[in-house]
Design brief:
Elements: H1 5-12, H2 16-23, H3 30-37, H4 43-50, H5 54-59, H6 61-67, H7 72-92, H8 96-100, H9 107-112, H10 116-125, H11 133-145
């Protein structure tokens, strides 16, 4: 039988949150884990990497191989690339003027500018929980306004 978290904390002197962060290092991409073991990144950077999806961990191999180290800035660059890709997808939908407007236009105006297909897709993908009901009603209203139920 292995030791439980409480026993490990007592034996190592680590508190529980720190122990759990360290345990997540097992989620690191093998190359990133080896780089951590070799001292090419700090514990804090390794813990942050371990919290990223596999795809983003893969993207971190590029700066690691280029500079031989990983820093928090490299993680931020990967996260921003994902955000920027999402923003570009919204721009491709023709929402650029609305995204750059100050103040932002009301949600009904944004939804009203979307295509029938996009609205149907949004309605399908919207989580079926009460918090999203106002958005679901707005989408339904836009579909009716477009005469496309």
């Amino acid at each position: 039988r292995g030791a439980n978290e409480k026993e490990i904390c007592a034996a190592t002197g680590m508190n529980l949150p720190r122990l759990r962060r360290r345990a997540k290092l097992g989620l690191l991409n093998p190359v990133l884990f080896q780089a951590f073991s070799n001292g090419q990144m700090s514990v804090a950077v390794a813990e942050a990497c371990a919290g990223l999806p596999h795809e983003q961990q893969q993207q971190l191999l590029v700066p690691l191989h280029q500079s031989g180290t990983l820093k928090h800035g490299d993680i931020q660059a990967v996260k921003h690339a994902r955000r920027d890709a999402g923003l570009n997808a919204l721009l491709d939908l023709g929402l650029g003027p609305m995204l750059t407007a100050t103040p932002y236009p009301p949600l009904p105006d944004i939804l009203g500018s979307l295509s029938h297909t996009t609205l149907l897709s949004m309605r399908t993908e919207l989580p079926n929980i009460a918090a999203f009901e106002p958005v679901r009603r707005l989408i339904e209203k836009c579909l009716v306004t477009h005469n496309m139920p």
